[in-house]
Write a structure and sequence with these properties.
mainly beta, about 180 residues, four-stranded antiparallel sheet
Length: about 180
């Protein structure tokens, strides 16, 4: 039996991330969702909501439809998000179109954005004070987690859509050229 069904109205490619009682995920229309992990969908909520919304639009004196069950907050970037977010110390890091973004979870304010040369499909990884993510421009980027400044980049020559892994100071990442790179 399904306990909660949350309707985003758009495709979700990211994996869900659970942190401190909330489930976080992104959608292709550029929205980050925060949903209460203990929430339950109300009886027939998704069947009734479209009719209630239409009636309210035509007759604004009716009560507005309630928020969807479980909704904590949403943040729109107005550009495609397909990566699974990473959370560290109350900061969410994610790829949003051609950007690597840091988002403060408490305020939902963007702390910084780092522009890459292509779409970021690679879910970010963090080691120490560095965020790592690949881009369709063929680069693996190492970005300062505090302010989003570039530390270094490595050009693989083909799209980097895989998510990097960091072990003992070595960053491992795959590229669309069929190679896996180990970068120190």
């Amino acid at each position: 039996m399904c306990r909660l069904r949350y309707n985003t109205s758009y495709t979700v490619y990211s994996s869900a991330l659970v942190d401190d009682g909330a489930v976080y995920f992104t959608s292709t229309n550029g929205v980050v969702f925060a949903v209460d992990q203990m929430a339950r969908t109300k009886f027939r909520e998704h069947e009734i909501r479209p009719y209630w919304s239409q009636a309210w639009a035509m007759m604004p004196w009716l009560p507005q439809p309630p928020e969807q069950s479980g909704k904590l907050w949403v943040k729109s970037f107005r550009r495609a998000n397909t990566t699974t977010p990473l959370i560290d110390n109350g900061i969410m890091y994610l790829g949003s179109d051609k950007y690597i973004v840091a988002l403060d979870l408490a305020t939902q304010e963007v702390l910084w954005e780092f522009a890459t040369g292509g779409v970021v499909r690679s879910s970010p990884a963090k080691a120490g004070s560095v965020i790592y993510a690949g881009s369709d421009d063929g680069n693996l980027y190492a970005v300062n987690a505090a302010d989003g400044t570039l530390r270094w980049s490595y050009d693989t020559g083909a799209r980097v859509t895989s998510s990097p892994a960091v072990v003992d100071g070595v960053v491992y990442v795959g590229s669309d050229n069929g190679k896996v790179y180990a970068i120190e």
